[in-house]
Amino acid sequence: MSRATSKQRGAEQFSPPVNKRKTSFFKIIHGNIIADQQLVLPTKFVTKHGNEFSDNVTLKVPNGSVWTIKLNKDDGKICLCAGWKDFVEYHSIHAGHVLIFRYDGKSCFYVIICDMTTVEINYPSETVNKLEKATRAGKILTSRQNLGSKTELEDDDDVQILNVRASKLLPSSLFIHILSNPSYHCKAG
Known about the structure:
Elements: H1 6-14, E1 23-28, H2 31-36, E2 39-40, H3 43-49, E3 56-60, E4 66-74, E5 77-80, H4 84-90, E6 98-105, E7 108-114, H5 126-136, H6 150-153, H7 166-169, H8 172-180
Parallel strand pairs: 3-7
Antiparallel strand pairs: 1-6, 2-5, 3-4, 4-5, 6-7
């Protein structure tokens, strides 16, 4: 009877069974991915999982936001298309960024976004997500409810809501920065 070495026992302890392992891949973002507004999934991944996909996939990021992206299936290739541009713009993804995709099954990916230094980005908060989606949809901010609960904003005096689109007030990147950094909120005197 053969005995397992400590190295073999350690490997068994930390390695899930092959059939339960989730498939992951990474993509280094280059200019064509940005310009073409689509991301081609790796051939080996498509060969293994391509038949499992519906017409859309779901991308989940660590801050909890969920994005639905339309797939384009053509000639054995599968691309993330409609909705991909919004995902890229919203997360300020540029050439040189690295995205790590973990396939969780049922057309759902968990995505980690790393900047050009290969460090994971700071994801926008859910309050900012609500604001950006409302702004992109052309909705006008008219009440405190659009920004979130009182616990998120502290006092009624911290923010004045105007009947103006947020994008008209400030460039969106500055607007997001101000909202996500409470030290920029002015206290009434």
